[in-house]
Specification:
This protein has helices at about 15-30, 45-55, 65-75, 95-105; strands at about 1-5, 10, 35, 40, 110-115, 120. With about 130 residues, the protein is α+β, with helices and mostly antiparallel strands. It is globular, with a radius of gyration of 15 Å.
């Protein structure tokens, strides 16, 4: 659990990941690549690449709550070119930040499940493709 604004406890369990996905696509997807959200932003880091290694056993097998905390902190302490979400037209509520962080923590760096239930694709690519 994390201490949030006004002493409230912020917990990954309070995140609405469906809402987080919608907010991520709308608010973050133009800058960040995230395979599950089908976004291919080129300004900020590719979040699949950023979390892929840390999810592996060799990378430390970090817990989902760690990814949640990292993502939430990055949004709260945004450094340019990332916008600040506590002011202006891009302002998001604490719950919206929690929802986005929960969503990102639940999917970033994980293989996408195909319709048949098998994992497809791998992370680590640069985001560029070539055609034959």
């Amino acid at each position: 659990m994390l201490a949030g604004c006004a002493g409230r406890t912020v917990d990954l369990k309070t995140a609405d990941t469906n809402q987080g996905k919608e907010l991520f696509v709308k608010t973050c997807g133009s800058c960040h690549t995230l395979q599950d959200a089908a976004t291919v932003g080129a300004v900020g880091p590719n979040l699949d690449d950023a979390f892929f290694a840390a999810r592996s056993q060799a990378g430390g097998s970090f817990d989902q709550s760690t990814f949640f905390q990292i993502t939430l902190d990055q949004m709260r302490l945004a450094a340019p070119p990332m916008p600040r979400f506590d002011e202006g037209p891009q302002r998001l509520s604490e719950q919206q930040l929690v929802d986005i962080a929960g969503y990102v923590a639940s999917v970033a760096g994980k293989p996408i499940q195909a319709a048949g239930g098998t994992a497809t694709g791998s992370t680590g690519a640069t985001g560029t493709t070539t055609s034959p």
